Amino acid sequence: MTTMTPTTPPPHPTSYRLTAYACFNGYIAQAVVNTFLPLLFITFTQTFGISIEELSILISANFFLQLLVDIFAGRYVDRIGYKTSIVAANALCATGLIMLSFMPFIMPSAFAGIIISVVVYAVGGGLIEVLISPIIEAIPSDNNDQMMSLLHSFYSWGQVGVVVVFVGFVALFGAGSWPILSLLFALIPAVSLLMFAKAPMPSIVDDDNRIDFVELLRRPAMWFFCLMLICAAAAELSMSQWSSAFAEAGLGVSKVVGDLAGPAAFAAMMGISRILYARWGERVDLRALIHWSATLCVVTYIVTAIAPMPALSLLACALTGLTVGIMAPGLMSLGAQKIPNGGTPMFSLFSFSQDVGGTLGPLAVGAVAGAFGDSLHVGLLFAAVFPLIMFIATVKKSVRHRMG
Fold first, then answer.
1. Same domain assignment for residues 152 and 226
2. Whole-angstrom Cα distance, residue 149 to residue 68?
3. CA distance linking residue 56 with residue 50, whole number of Å
4. What is the CATH number of the domain that holds 314?
5. What does pTM read for this prediction?
6. How confident is the model at residue 223 (pLDDT cuts 50, 70, 90)?
7. Strand (E) or helix (H) holding 65
8. Most buried residue, 169, 229, 322, 388, by CB count within 10 Å?
């Protein structure tokens, strides 16, 4: 007679509601740590005398640390545990934002205080980027690609919120009030920390079925998705990072208008596209949608760069957000379907690819603009090459089939 050992049934999908909400709020936290600091660059220059070269170091440090975190997470997160890692990630984000509010004022060098704060929250932001997507993908659902799109929409709305709150807060209390705002923004990852501490974690990939890094890199599909994600991130970050400066310097509008009509409008349209797909995504072919999004993205980049009227350029800039919105979440979801047992190593490579694209894209725009007399018109026109590569890669049916 065989004795049956009782087992605990897996949580019902509805029990993961708090987990999903924690993921959504976690992406807002990541939007805060990635968006808040660049809005303070002029203030830092005027208040602390920080140079353009030092500001560039802050940007490079943030991206470089996230690249290192991508590599680290793929090797060690499974051993540490997802709950421990994601709670620690949000704790680091909150701590870094709190440190930013006072470290520049107590350190002998304000720049040293800022970069120490950036190091702390950049590690947390990098971990969030790697961990959130596989958690959402692992939650039992019939529409994981739509859930992924909805998740990424919260990052977009987080960007919009940061810019709008910053503009309003500074208008009411002055530019010198930014340390208080940094403390208030720290509440967002703090709330995520508490949510993840209570939320159940879904099983990402069984240890017996997980693919390691070496096996992943032997698969042509993995290289294909990494290339596509590099281009998708480059297309997204080239416009979002340079849109404010382009609006001010290239189109001659004020900083407030530049911030709202540039990065805020871009992020809002990106969020709208992700919500629309999350709502009605089951009615469309995701592979075809990515193909046509890349096609339209080429057009909007060209119109932004060469339109004769500033209003038309700003409209095309915003519509670029609509075209890039589905690219990254769609590609990650298709990649998870194509390589279902990729687990943390796969998502860390996906995140690594996005960080590479997010670094190279804006750098290329700046370099090309500098070579043509600091013309961001020429720089953004060059950036059309990134969605163009995606268009070429997906135009043939035989190649598009590799995405799914």
1. no
2. 26
3. 10
4. 1.20.1250.20
5. 0.78
6. very high
7. helix 52-80
8. 229
